[in-house]
Amino acid sequence: NGTLIRKKSMDALKDFEDESLDFVYIDGNHIFTYVAEDMYYWSYKLKPGGVLCGHDYAYFRHRYIGGGCQVKEIVNAFAFSYDLDFWVLGNNKKLYTEEKRDDYRSWMFIKTWLTNR
């Protein structure tokens, strides 16, 4: 079961209690500030053991106006800053010719850190 909520990411935060969600998937604005805010603030909404993940673990500088896609850099910095392991899911190599595959990988953390950082 799921509910579609049409709000900007930072506006939707107030709709959820801290440590109330099992899963958060981020695929918003790919510029530095927005990625960092999404990861940081939405991680508070996860229960311990919950999954924080998102799309576009990739590097392409000129895709977006204002600085490109900085998802990969922010995910790496988040992991380094909090000494966390994370996983990169999928790849863009097709195993057979009819296969449909996303060009950019997803990333994933399992929440093992305390919320009161």
How many strands, which pairing sense, and closed or not: the largest β-sheet? 4 strands, mixed
Number of helices: 3
The side-by-side strand order for the widest beta sheet comes to 1-2-4-3
Coarse structural class: alpha+beta
Radius of gyration: 15 Å
Order of helices and strands: HEHEHEE
Quick one: how many beta strands? 4
Distance between the termini: 31 Å
Strand content: 15-25%
Unreliable residue runs: none
- Basic shape: globular
Mean pLDDT value: 83
Helix content: 10-25%
How would you describe this structure to a colleague?
The chain is an alpha+beta fold and 117 residues long. The chain has helices spanning 9-12, 32-43, 71-81; strands spanning 21-26, 46-57, 87-89, 105-110. A four-stranded mixed β-sheet has the order 1-2-4-3. β1, α2 (32-43) and β2 form a beta-alpha-beta unit. The radius of gyration is 15 Å and the shape is globular. The relative contact order is 0.19. The mean pLDDT is 83.
Primary descriptors:
117 residues; alpha+beta; four-stranded mixed β-sheet; 4 strands; 23% helix; 23% strand
Give a concise summary.
This protein has 117 residues and is of the alpha+beta class.
Topology:
Blueprint: H1 9-12, E1 21-26, H2 32-43, E2 46-57, H3 71-81, E3 87-89, E4 105-110
Parallel strand pairs: 1-2
Antiparallel strand pairs: 2-4, 3-4
